[in-house]
Amino acid sequence: MSVSSSTSTSTGGSRQSAQIIREFAKLEGGGNARGQADAIRFRLVSYNILAQVYTKDHFFPHSPPPCLRWNDRSREILNLLKNLGSDFYSLQELDEFDSFYKKKMEGLGYSGIYIQRSGQKRDGCGIFYKKNRAELLLEEMVEYNDLVPPVHGEASSSDKHDLLEKFSGLSVTSSPQHHGDPNDPRVRFKKDCVGIMAAFKFKHPPHHVVILANTHLYWDPKLADVKLAQAKYLLARLAQFKTLVTDRFKCTPSVILCGDFNSTPGDEVYQYIISGNTLSASSDRPLEELPLPLCSVYASARGEPPFTTCTPKFKNTLDYIFFFPSDGLMPVSILQLAELDSPDVAGGLPNYSHPSDHLPIGAEFEITKGKNAQIRKSI
């Protein structure tokens, strides 16, 4: 496994960080079209950077204090993004967007789009892209609070009623007498989680269009139904967005979905995304028809990593990159991750080697000219 390190001094001056930056590993059979003039290669990294608002000592008592300080963490995160050299970054728990990351990433040659979480939450999801490689065509925000039903007598569109019934299976109305009841849909589904979708056109021939979607689903394992409803809503919205992009720009876009899904490979969310199956469904129940069938990059290559988040109390895989398989899009390399016995994750994250409690995941994709990969010249 290829690993590089970057050393810098913390603001306290008492300890030097040895940030670990892993490299992309070529996949077997990948990269056969590098010599083709019409082939496009690009890198995508997805990373939950851990919002500064959540870096409390009682959340991370195992982390050295300098690893939780804004000045140290922001510098280390920016250094990591710079050294990974990705064309696109999908970031979750992104805060300080306007005050820090937007300007700093612009200095590295990136433009960014961002959606902040609803309510009083200070973090959100963002996508940064290299300005010299792609241009933004269209973007849409996804707010999972759309799944919250109206109370009796409250006006609501029929579309919103349909969304709730389709993706949650709960009643479309909520009684104000049950306000605060965790079983009341207005409470249960109002989690202020968000996502973002964007279509990009590559600036170099064949000017292919790619759709990137980034999300952060709700965390609580006790509310698996809420996470599943969010995932179903996201895929339905993503399929609609793909149709919109196809019709408006007269193209056949590639589709990539990534983020922190707060779900392990055995959970309902993951199983639904890759197969239309959910663990709650009986064995004789037919699989749901997926609005957009997707594959996991890591699972299709070498299997999902053993973990993407690591603390003393929890170590598992929650972060994924999914893609819509087509004749023209294929992953050719993946970002390597730490192993279970890697010394740089011993004791849990964040630490001096990793500025977040999650690890970045990434893939290099190749798009080749074909019936499903070529954009018309009308854009």
Give an overview of the whole structure.
By secondary structure, the protein is of the alpha+beta class. The protein is 21% helix and 28% strand. It contains seven helices and 17 strands. The strands form four sheets. A seven-stranded mixed beta sheet has the order 3-16-17-4-5-7-6. The protein has a six-stranded mixed beta sheet with strand order 8-9-10-11-15-12. A two-stranded antiparallel sheet has the order 1-2. The longest helix is centred in the middle third of the chain and has 26 residues, at 224-249. The chain is globular. Residues 9-14, 170-174 and 371-379 have low confidence and may be disordered.
User: How many distinct beta strands?
Assistant: 17
Instruction: Kindly provide the radius of gyration, computed on alpha-carbon positions and rounded to a whole number of angstroms.
Output: 21 Å
- DSSP strand (E) fraction? 25-35%
Question: Which consecutive residue ranges, at least 5 long each, have pLDDT under 50?
Answer: 9-14, 170-174, 371-379
Q: Structural class, from secondary structure content?
A: alpha+beta
For the largest sheet, list the strands in their spatial order: 3-16-17-4-5-7-6
Average the pLDDT over all residues and give the rounded result.
Answer: 88
- Give the overall form: globular
Task: Give the assembly state of these chains.
Answer: single chain
